[in-house]
Each structure stands twice: as C-alpha cells, then as structure tokens.
UniProtKB/TrEMBL annotation:
Listed Polar residues bias regions: 205-217
Lineage start: Eukaryota, Fungi, Dikarya, Ascomycota, Pezizomycotina
Biased composition (Low complexity): 309-321
GO molecular function: hydrolase activity, hydrolyzing O-glycosyl compounds
Protein's name in the database: GH16 domain-containing protein
GH16 domain ranges (all copies): 77-306
Length: 364
C-alpha cells in the first residue's frame, strides 16, 4: 500500500509542476505586459508568432550617462566592461548579449568588438527621453565596433527598430563615411537577411537583402529610398519580416520591398551592429572619426524552432495584434479565448486520468 501512495504522490507532484510551466515560459520570453497574449499577429500576412519582446530605451533616465571615453589604440583587446547595469539584467539580458573581447582580423582594418560602444544617453532634443547609443570609432590600428546579438535563435520573425544615425560633429552635420549599420538575421553567409545603411551611400538610401545576393540571384536585394523625403539621420521605423519562403521590408509602415529569393530557412540570431572593415562594401573610415546610432526601441514578434507550424493549433487562443495597439510595445487583444489555459488543463486531465486509472487498477 505504501508504494501506492508513493505513486499517487509522485503524480500529484508532476501535476503541480505542470501547472507552473506557463509562468516559467513567460519568464524566459516575456509576454506583453498588459495582457496575456498566446499568439501575436502582425500587419501584412497570416503567420502567427508565439513570442514577443519589446526592448524600450526611451525612459531610462536613471541609467543615462555621458559618452564613455573613446576607444584608443591601447584598448586593443575589446575587454571594456558593459557601461550600465541595465545591460546585465532583464528585460535586456533576457533578449540580448553585447559582444566584446572579439577580434576579427579578416578585414583590411581589423575589427574589435567593445561593450563600451553601447550606452544609454539622454536625448539632447528632449531631456525626458533617452535612447541606446551605438558607437564605432576608427583608430590607427583597428576599428572599434559594436554588436548586439539576440539570445533566442529565431525561426521566422517580424523585427522592428526605431533609430537614426548621428554625426560625430567633426565635419559639421556630416556623418563619417565608411560605417555600416546592420539590422539582420544571421546563421551563415547563405542564411542571412538584412537591412543595411551605408554611410558612404546618399543619406536617403537603405540596402535590403537576403544572402547570397548577387547578379546570379536577381531579386534578392534592393536599394530603396526612405519614404516621405526622410534621411537616415531622421527617426525612421525599420521593419524586416521573415516568413517561410518570403521576406518583406517596411519603413515607417510603408511596404518597401519583398522577395522569395534566398530566404533563410534555419534558426538564426537577430543582430544589430555598427561596423566597418575597410573593404569596398563598407568603405574605410578615416582615423579619428566616429559614427553613432541612436536607438529608441527594438520590437520582435517571433517563433522558435518548432513553433508556429500549424495555424490550426492557435485557434481558441488569445490573439494580440502588434500593429494596431495604441501604445507602441503593448500589443492589443483582438480575439479572446475561454480556452486560454487549455494546454495546462489538458496536462492536468491526463495526469488525473493516470491517477484514477492507478487507483482503479489497485482496487481490482
Ligand atoms: C531605474 O528606475 C527603474 C524604474 O523606475 C528601477 O527599477 C531601477 O532600479 C532604477 N535603476 C537605478 C540604477 O537606479
Ligand atoms: C561590469 O559592470 C557591471 C555592471 O555595471 C558591474 O556590476 C561589474 O562589477 C563590472 N565588472 C567589472 C569587472 O568591472
Ligand atoms: C510585394 O511587392 C509587390 C510589388 O511591389 C506588391 O504588389 C505586394 O503587395 C507585396 N507583397 C507584400 C506581402 O507586401
Ligand atoms: C486545419 O483546419 C482546417 C479547417 O478546419 C482543415 O481543413 C485542415 O486540414 C487543418 N490542418 C491541419 C494541419 O490540421
Ligand atoms: C477579453 O476579455 C476581457 C476579460 O474577460 C475583457 O475585459 C475584454 O473586453 C475582452 N476583449 C475582447 C476583445 O473581447
């Protein structure tokens, strides 16, 4: 009889454990703060995403600092620490890692990744607002660069950021040529899709691509003009949607380009970087020059490997719309569900059946 109680106790334990699973999951991949969304929809297509993250840099006054000392030739290990405890704790650390201590010598100008090139700044045009600053500096021996890498590996996502490029003030309003801002997914050189801004390009032009993009793969890239006469030195919302077999790019909500060519097929990290390797694509930055990027927020609706495979699986769940919400970063409930906890109750039902099955078996 003792073993009977051991079995029942174990099953009850499993049962209570199972009921805690949803909380643990939502801790890892935060849900919209004001709602309990099960799936997220975005404008423009049907794919449903099971995860959502909004990294907001606009109200971080108590973390804002003045610009950290510029990287010098002596800082050639890239081991500078992160510039704020903000980067070491959730929500930021759930989603992002700032690369550092990495040297990429396979370039005309070696690139060294430093965490001192990411910091929270007060917006000089509105002191109640803050943003994330990304910085790249050309010193004599190398280019100090910065890269954020997403912790989750995404398999299909709608990725957005609001940013603008800032000059270093050494040439009036001129932004130093030779830097590249990249907002892209990457797993390998043939599994990559990009939004890239080249500071050697005209200030109205943005490059969109899936890789490989070349004359052998027509339709895998486009050079587009930012809508409404804006430049990349203005605040612009950039959006890259990656679906199974199709990519779509938007700027300020306007569809700019889409393609079915070279669309990535494997789980990939989202990267946000600012770099220059001195080769022809980026160009070479002049020694002593810097380029800055101001970032107000990064928003991602995404699936992980194995998620979002069947649109039927999401019927009866609470759906939220990423794009119709009145407040940026707070997806709006568009379809309620009474079966919200159905996954949990299914697990509980199965566990209960097993318990009662065992009781019945013991009684016989
Ligand atoms: C900054 O403010 C937030 C919320 O207002 C608070 O949670 C956080 O602990 C503060 N951080 C510092 C370094 O003061
Ligand atoms: C790095 O920065 C973090 C957060 O600001 C701080 O807690 C930590 O002590 C620093 N580490 C070193 C080695 O300075
Ligand atoms: C893709 O681009 C074509 C031509 O510009 C446009 O007609 C179509 O609506 C776009 N598709 C999506 C999903 O935006
Ligand atoms: C999804 O649902 C539709 C209609 O209810 C059905 O025809 C289809 O076979 C289902 N697909 C899957 C993969 O279950
Ligand atoms: C969803 O349910 C909540 C609580 O039951 C309710 O307040 C809300 O109005 C519902 N929303 C929709 C879109 O039906």
């Amino acid at each position: 009889m003792l073993s009977f109680f051991v079995v029942v106790f174990t099953l009850l334990h499993i049962q209570s454990h199972a009921s805690r699973l949803p909380e643990r999951r939502s801790h890892l991949y935060p849900r919209a703060p004001s709602s309990n969304c099960d799936v997220y929809v975005v404008s423009g297509q049907d794919t449903k995403f099971e995860n959502y993250a909004f990294t907001d840099f606009r109200s971080l006054s108590n973390y804002s600092i003045s610009e950290p000392p510029s990287v010098t030739d002596a800082d050639n290990q890239g081991e500078e620490n992160i510039t704020s405890p903000y980067f070491a704790q959730p929500p930021f650390s759930d989603q992002w890692t700032i690369r550092r201590g990495i040297r990429n010598a396979e370039s005309d100008v070696p690139m060294i990744y430093s965490a001192s090139n990411a910091y929270i700044s007060k917006d000089p045009s509105d002191s109640s607002q803050t943003y994330l600053t990304l910085r790249t500096t050309r010193v004599q021996d190398f280019q100090s660069v910065v890269q954020l890498v997403s912790n989750p590996k995404l398999l299909h996502a709608s990725m957005r950021t609001r940013m603008k490029i800032l000059p270093d003030g050494k040439d009036g309003d001129g932004v130093a040529k030779g830097a590249v801002v990249g907002f892209f997914t990457y797993e390998a050189d043939t599994q990559e899709t990009d939004i890239e801004i080249l500071t050697q390009d005209p200030s109205t032009t943005v490059e969109l691509s899936t890789q490989p993009a070349s004359s052998d793969t027509p339709g895998a890239d486009a050079s587009v003009k930012i809508p409404n006469g804006k430049k990349w030195t203005d605040w612009v919302d950039y959006r890259l949607d990656w679906f199974a077999g199709k990519n779509v790019w938007y700027m300020d909500g306007e569809m700019m380009y889409n393609t079915t060519k070279s669309v990535p097929t494997v789980p990939s990290n989202l990267m946000f970087n600012l770099w220059s390797n001195g080769q022809s694509f980026s160009g070479k930055m002049r020694v002593g020059r810097e380029v800055y990027v101001a970032v107000q927020w990064i928003e991602i609706a995404y699936n992980l490997d194995g998620q979002g495979q069947s649109s039927n699986g999401t019927s009866g769940q609470t759906q939220c719309s990423v794009d119709s919400g009145k407040t940026k970063g707070s997806p709006e409930v568009i379809k309620n569900s009474s079966a919200k906890r159905s996954a949990v109750s299914r697990v509980l039902k199965i566990a209960n059946s097993i318990v009662f099955g065992l009781i019945a078996w013991y009684c016989i």
